[in-house]
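fwd from M.: "can u put these together and see what the complex looks like"

so here's what she sent:
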Amino acid sequence: MGACAEPVIRLTKPLGIAALFVVAVLVLAPVLALISRAESGGVSAAVWPAIRFTLLQASLSALISVALAVPLAKALARRAFFGRGLMVSLLGAPFLLPSIVAVLGLLAIWGRSGVFSDMLAVVGLGPLDIYGLEGVLLAHVFFNLPLATRMLLQGWQAVPSEHYRLAAQLDLAPRAKFALFDMPVLRGAAPSALLVIFMLCMSSFAVVLALGGGPKASTIELAIYQALRFEFDLASAAQLAIVQLVVGLSAAALAFHFGKATRFGGGLGAPFQNWDTRRGPKLLDGAVLVLAALFVGLPLLAILAKGLAGLGALPSGLWGAFTVSLGVAAASTLLALGLSLVLARLIETSRRGGAIELFTLLLLATSPFVIGTGLFIIINPFASPFALALPITALVNAALALPLMLRIIRPALSRVRQDYGRLAEGLGLSGWARFRLLTFPQIRPELGFATGLAAALSMGDLGVITLFAPPDVQTLPLLMYRLMGSYQMEAAAGVGLVLVASSFGLFYLFDKGGRGAGA
Amino acid sequence: MKKFLFAAALSLPFGSVAAETLTVYTYDSFVTDWGPGPQIKAAFEAECDCTLQFVSAGDGAALLARLRLEGARTEADVALGLDNSLVEQARDIGIFAPLAAAPEGLALPVAWEDDTFVPYDWGYLAFVYDNTKLSDVPDSFEALAASDLRIVIQDPRSSTPGLGLVLWVKAAYGEEAGAIWQGLSDNIVTVTKGWSGAYGMFLEGEADMVLSYTTSPAYHLIAEDDATKSAAQFSEGHYMQVEVAAKLVSSDQQALADEFLAFITTDAFQTVIPETNWMYPATGAAVPEGFSGMINPAPVSGALTISDANRKAAVEEWVRALSQ
């Protein structure tokens, strides 16, 4: 292995720069392509309410998700119980649901004829009406509370268990422990989680429409969709895309300003033990865990029940769609993993690391419609978009997963460098050997989680395939939407279940693999 | 794996190497197992000695946007699935060629004369409800607005039936359309991105009525043996959606495209429509038994098609009325 160490070092930097170039192309080229083809048009003042509502719902969604994730992540971090591993894994599930599946699942619980409304009816109270801002927030928290929890949980798990033992020996007051452990963990992880969720909610649109109750709840993303599809007003789509990028950039700059990673130092890797034996916190943690399990679990159960009923009506194209989806997911996951590792390394070693990371995060603020249409305009003069449909879909899916992966992997890489960097250099450990012996085992949980997310996201994303799909080629999400369009709600629910199960299966495979048998 | 996928994608065959291939762009639900696509492909190929290839591109509006993006390089010979709300916009772009011959045997409720677009089916928009739960059915938009019924509709900025509803109210009430929408605002549970989201929510019991078609109950009756769905008949008349097909100027299969457009108004095409697309045939072709119980309203007065500027104005009025 020593022989290949040197070439690896020489290669990582150019590869990182190449990856950065790919990011730059994907962020900028589609917008430029739209502008180049724009004839007339442009945004009117009518777009202001949409911008306001986008900012409002995305900020609130992020704040509520992260605020609720704090007690949940803390409870998960300090309690050991039967099924904990499964619960941590299941937290990945809502994030992977196609929006329409999630909406119908949520309505089965919270809707006007959902479980809670039925229960209220027994005591003579009217049905719940969640439509409006509250419905949008409910759905976004359902999607993102689990993601925020996982991101915060990683922060807490970076605190070596020896620290807690020492704190117990010194009999530190809860307030001191909060200041020493919890506060620094939150300072490191919360801004990152807030930022990612803000950006994800900013480009949400089908969910906002379905639960928003009317045109008062319009987002920039809807305006982009309308401009590209109904009006064919490329100028206004490009302008709106730039608004999204500016908002995204400001949010990212804000998060970078407030975020501050804390070094807890390395531990011996002993398993966590809870030294706090008081009953009050234990009961509280229990209540938090049960409530969270219900909040996340009930809609998932509703989706499962509906899907099982539809399994009898599965359509003929299912197997083909499954294979295509899996192939695209595999390709885009490999790509995203490679890109994120070389980019993380570039960010770690470059003096302009912060700026590079900020720029990469802009991928989260780009509209999939703009990327799809932009790439289509660029490719169409040279090649048939059909022929490139699958590679393009894989590339775009990889690009959309990239910022999320970076936010998870990059802090882990910093931690390893800070904790073990000097030791490794003293031992002359470098290149591939260093990655294999030191970095990989240390960042394995984060790598597994991030890769799982990338794979599952690619599997479940409707993405740009709609624009490029050649005849006879469809992915699972595409098949599901097509079925819903021809009254086949039951078959669509069945396909939805297959889709969710395979997305979750992929996520579980990587996530569990990363956490190892013990975690 | 990546390399393999790339190679596989590059070698994707565009039909087999049959004599000639006619490429028809259409919307998603047309090409599913349950849609008209498979039967129509088989029927046309039996008489044309060619390969008919359907490419699905979202819905009608997405289809038009796709053709505009592709420009002269498009592989499409025929576009099938635009509707009357898009026809004027489509004509203005100048990518569609005039028909070789006027379509034969059209039998729409209103006269259709157009030298470019052939209608292949039509339907009336209507509010659909569950007749086991709803007895006091409104018979106009005013009655609906005065009731406390809950409806779910589609967004005119992202959905063709949603746009149709806005044009329906506009055609029926003109200057008063904004006031009607304000009256309806407390009846609207929510506005979805597309038809399937709204219909799915209605079936889950989220609303008393959903914007759909007068023929929707026929689907439940024929395919599911379920007679619980009905459509409400409105005294203002109903908005008519006419779905059309046309030939691309840039097509290198002009003769074959003409042949297909003529095939559209034959029984071989038309008899497939009712039970796959759940719309009425554009000709006098027979409809199945289950369709006879459907309501048979009058079309709302006014022109079938609409200019781009008027369409935009109507949608903006809708947004304003519901944002107050």
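replying to her w this: Residues 1-8 of chain A have pLDDT under 50 and may be disordered.
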